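In the design runs reported in the main text, the only information available to the sequence generator was the tokenized backbone. The following block is the verbatim input for one such run; it is reproduced so that readers can re-run the procedure and compare outputs position by position.
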């Protein structure tokens, strides 16, 4: 997901921005959908530490598995960024996320975006229902739409690992704390509300 999504950003820069925001958003959305379709039955295909934390809070993932999941997600993001750097060459930003507006604006945006994404995940894949088979498409489409309209504001990371990889490889990690904290906060909030709603049903 990181390789294809951030790779689209790098490619867009090399092609004089011909892909545009729509092309980049499609790359992220389609890659997320494919990862869930391919690996959802094996690991759940979280590909996102914020999602893993939230899933633990809902009781769907054992706590002892959280650290291995997070290590794998960050390692995958760094590996993807290292490979992309070899292909793109020196001087590439590797699709690193940076706030376009104020830090507060981007922080709140990332909380809201991840809250919505986590809500879609829980509603479609959180428990057995007729929506389960549509979960990969619903989640991927949510990533696509949020990346499209919020990308120009906050980078629309919604994923600490997605931001961590490029930041570590390029060294541009000044705003990284925002993308580590805000998505987790949004996902945890969604998980909390999900559990409260289930208890009332």
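Verbatim output:
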């Amino acid at each position: 997901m990181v390789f294809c999504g951030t790779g689209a950003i790098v490619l867009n820069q090399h092609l004089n921005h011909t892909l545009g925001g729509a092309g980049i958003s499609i790359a992220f959305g389609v890659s997320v959908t494919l990862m869930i379709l391919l690996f959802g039955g094996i690991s759940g295909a979280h590909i996102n530490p914020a999602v893993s934390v939230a899933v633990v809070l809902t009781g769907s993932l054992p706590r002892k598995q959280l650290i291995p999941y997070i290590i794998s997600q960050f390692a995958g993001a760094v590996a993807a960024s290292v490979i992309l750097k070899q292909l793109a060459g020196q001087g590439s930003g590797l699709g690193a996320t940076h706030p376009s507006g104020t830090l507060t604006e981007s922080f709140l945006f990332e909380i809201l975006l991840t809250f919505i994404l986590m809500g879609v995940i829980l509603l479609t894949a959180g428990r057995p229902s007729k929506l389960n088979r549509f979960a990969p498409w619903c989640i991927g489409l949510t990533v696509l739409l949020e990346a499209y309209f919020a990308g120009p504001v906050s980078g629309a990371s919604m994923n600490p690992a997605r931001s961590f990889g490029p930041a570590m490889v390029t060294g541009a990690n000044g705003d990284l704390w925002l993308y580590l904290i805000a998505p987790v906060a949004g996902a945890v909030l969604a998980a909390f509300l999900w559990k409260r709603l289930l208890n009332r049903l």
